[in-house]
Amino acid sequence: MARIVVDWRGSGDFRTVQEAVMAAPEHSEERTVIEIRKGLYEEKIIVPDSRKSISFIGESREGTVLVSSDYANMPGPDGQKLGNERSASTFVYADDFYAERLTFSNQAGLYKGQAVALAVSGDRAVFRDVCIRGNQDTLYTPGQGRQYYENCFIEGTVDFIFGSATAVFEGCELHSIRRHNGYVTAAATTEEQPYGYVFINCKLTGAAPEHTVSLGRPWKPYAKVVFIDSWMDRHIRPEGWDNWRDTERERTATFAEYGSKGPGARPAERASWAKKLGRPEAGGIKAAALRGSDGWDPAMTVTSNA
């Protein structure tokens, strides 16, 4: 297992995370662990698909911060608007990525619109004990890869977890900040995918006003989002779900809950078109969503003992 140390003060192998990423071997099956010392790393980071099996290991979740301030409507070097993808502070295209004990952030600000903190399109990605901070469109999950988030903190306003990947969130806090008319998720799951977003034992908190945030709306017609045994505060709307002004999507989307708790859990008042979910076995759903044809289990992902 190769190790690279990043320290903005100059005491490591590199001062920037991007330099460390590009120093990792291409198309390698051996894991490269990039240890990132405490500090504010103001840079755009891209993990290209040629740099697979990379780990980002921070010194502390709040103390190691990867951040930029780009937003979708700002002009890029070519004079064209960046758009969501190019606005990302960190974009992971590579498979088998792992991150632990750090923060991915976009500081574009509440009124700049769409501004991605973290985008992940690679397969078999794992995030443990990380913060993902932004406003609109915080976490972007394009493609149809598999992703696992454990004990993470994710914040935003509108559609702050969005995309088409299959992703399981376990023991995470989803925090809606300072704005009404918010949406936690905007899934774009395809009809062929059996699972979209699965939230297990999560906590939905918020500084948004009471009854102003929906659990999700369908970015694409066959969006799939399930909450299992999760706690919800009073910022969640009683109806729970939004059809994105398209009643036809009420027929095709799969939005469901089981075992929701807290003042925002009001099953009798949920949208009538939300699906009914029987008692699930959380571990079974997690395994079914992530195993794929290769039998992937995120618990077996090689990590660091740092």
TrEMBL record:
Q: What does the record list as GO biological process?
A: cell wall modification; pectin catabolic process
Please give the pathway this protein is involved in. Answer: Glycan metabolism; pectin degradation; 2-dehydro-3-deoxy-D-gluconate from pectin: step 1/5
The domain of life is: Bacteria
Q: What is its EC number?
A: 3.1.1.11
Q: What class of enzyme is it?
A: hydrolase
Pfam families per the UniProt record, alphabetical: Pectinesterase
Q: Where is the Pectinesterase catalytic domain?
A: 4-274
Naming one, the record's GO cellular component terms include: cell outer membrane
Q: Residues in the active site?
A: D159
Q: Write the record's keywords in alphabetical order, separated by commas.
A: Aspartyl esterase, Hydrolase
What GO MF annotations does this protein's record show? pectinesterase activity
Q: Which reaction does it catalyse?
A: [(1->4)-alpha-D-galacturonosyl methyl ester](n) + n H2O = [(1->4)-alpha-D-galacturonosyl](n) + n methanol + n H(+)
Where, by residue number, does the polypeptide cross the bilayer?
A: none
PROSITE patterns assigned to the protein according to its UniProt record, in alphabetical order: PECTINESTERASE_2
Family, according to the entry, reads as follows: Belongs to the pectinesterase family.
Tell me the protein's name. Pectinesterase
Organism this protein belongs to? Paenibacillus arenilitoris
